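Anyone up for a design puzzle?
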């Protein structure tokens, strides 16, 4: 059941269990045992005859090389990781090194459990299109074994007219090259303050670090830190914390000859070890006209959540780090696509049930949020939040919302915020724009339609949306008619 202006299209996207990555696997450690079984396994590989090794290695390469980019190089990297279990006098043949590496490698199906919560933005490449078409980049929440989420991507073509078509999702999946990212001293201070972790030691380290620094600079500062501070009660805990925070910032570069659907961002920091959830992408344009892709997402370590910022100039190079401030305390932050009155703005749901507005001077440290919309209708009785970044129109900021009502049914609605003062709600829908249809009630999480962002093209609002945290559908609505339908709020 949905608002008459919502038009579903036939395009759907389903999870694909063949989208696998090969990752390091250390038997024993996955069960949190005190002793890894790596040494015993390495001994078994060394005991095999060369004929057995050649046969096994050949079979592995034939079967798995088509499924992974640079498969043999990956196996050799994994072999090098466990090389301490091999006597340094032992010379491994190429085949034995491959087999050793494969014994500590496992495939992980990135979306074996579900595919949901998409966010759409204009693609950086608009070449080769027909008149009236727009290529969009769509981020996806891919959920695999252990309910661990990654950020995947796909592409779609909108138009001409009321058409949406997903393009082929190329294989193999590629994870990219990860490296530490730089910090600003001010940003680190904000994060440590946010966590209540500014003490004499962390203050001394911040004072010793340059304005822009990386993990190498931190280690140098630690070597120069006063011994009295390092050895006092709590010193080791402070060192562990600041290291963990600094190493949580990283960047990922994907090979130039990969396509966007091949790329996937997988957990690389401790605070996101159990998932990277619900990226909300926007094309951010600064006051000088420079455009950058920005997204917020929720990091989860199995116990706590942490809002994080993702930046990219081209959707091939990414940088991510922790956000700070009173507004960065819960899920679902959504960034405005430009500065408003010289400030970064974001919608958030810090208290878990209302939509609030926060501001920031630098885009990293966020002010205390101000509530702008609380549940009004029965279909948002439990909570209300955003469904992606605000969309600028000539009448105001269009904000797609999710409301949760009786039987934990999720629906999608809309608000309109004043262009110059987005803290003012000037319009809202009095009924859902989109609600689960009969064939959208059953899935991983029943009775849910949910989105992390849409785009406007050729007079239509286009919104890909997750269905029951299982698959993805697409709808459109005529923009002017949708804006006309908003009830004036005084």
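Challenge accepted. My sequence:
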């Amino acid at each position: 059941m949905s608002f008459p202006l919502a038009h579903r299209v036939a395009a759907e996207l389903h999870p694909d269990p063949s989208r696998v990555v090969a990752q390091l696997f250390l038997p024993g450690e996955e069960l949190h045992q005190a002793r890894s079984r790596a040494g015993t396994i390495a001994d078994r590989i060394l005991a095999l005859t060369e004929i057995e090794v050649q046969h096994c290695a050949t079979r592995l390469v034939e079967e798995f090389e088509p499924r992974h980019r640079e498969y043999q190089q990956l196996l050799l990297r994994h072999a090098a990781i466990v090389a301490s279990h091999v006597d340094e006098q032992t010379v491994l043949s190429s085949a034995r090194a491959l087999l050793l590496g494969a014994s500590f490698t496992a495939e992980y199906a990135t979306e074996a459990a579900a595919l949901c919560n998409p966010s759409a933005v204009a693609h950086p490449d608009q070449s080769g299109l027909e008149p009236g078409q727009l290529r969009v980049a769509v981020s996806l929440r891919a959920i695999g074994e252990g309910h661990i989420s990654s950020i995947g991507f796909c592409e779609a073509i909108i138009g001409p007219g009321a058409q949406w078509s997903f393009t082929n999702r190329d294989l193999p999946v590629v994870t990219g090259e990860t490296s530490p990212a730089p910090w600003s001293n001010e940003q680190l201070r904000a994060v440590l303050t946010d966590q209540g972790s500014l003490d004499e030691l962390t203050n001394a380290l911040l004072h010793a670090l340059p304005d822009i620094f990386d993990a190498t600079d931190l280690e140098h500062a630690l070597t120069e830190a006063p011994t009295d501070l390092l050895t006092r009660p709590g010193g080791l805990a402070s060192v562990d914390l600041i290291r963990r925070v600094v190493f949580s910032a990283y960047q990922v570069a994907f090979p130039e000859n990969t396509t966007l659907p091949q790329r996937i961002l997988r957990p690389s920091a401790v605070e996101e070890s159990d998932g990277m959830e619900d990226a909300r992408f926007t094309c951010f344009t600064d006051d000088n006209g420079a455009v950058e892709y920005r997204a917020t997402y929720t990091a989860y370590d199995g116990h706590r959540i942490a809002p994080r910022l993702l930046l990219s100039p081209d959707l091939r190079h990414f940088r991510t780090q922790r956000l700070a401030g009173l507004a960065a305390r819960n899920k679902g932050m959504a960034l405005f696509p430009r500065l408003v009155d010289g400030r970064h703005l974001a919608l958030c749901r810090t208290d878990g049930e209302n939509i609030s507005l926060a501001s920031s001077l630098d885009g990293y440290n966020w002010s205390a949020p101000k509530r702008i919309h609380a549940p009004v209708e029965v279909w948002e009785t439990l909570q209300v939040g955003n469904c992606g970044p605000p969309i600028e129109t000539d009448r105001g900021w269009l904000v797609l919302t999710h409301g949760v009502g009786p039987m934990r049914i999720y629906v999608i609605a809309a608000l309109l915020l004043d262009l110059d003062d987005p803290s003012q709600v000037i319009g809202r829908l009095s009924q859902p724009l989109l609600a689960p249809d009969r064939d959208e009630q059953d899935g991983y999480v029943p009775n849910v339609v949910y989105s992390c962002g849409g785009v406007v093209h050729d007079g239509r609002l286009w919104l890909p949306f997750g269905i029951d945290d299982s698959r993805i559908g697409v709808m459109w609505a005529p923009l002017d008619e949708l804006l006309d339908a908003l009830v004036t709020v005084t």
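A detail worth pointing out: The first strand starts at residue 7 and ends at 8.
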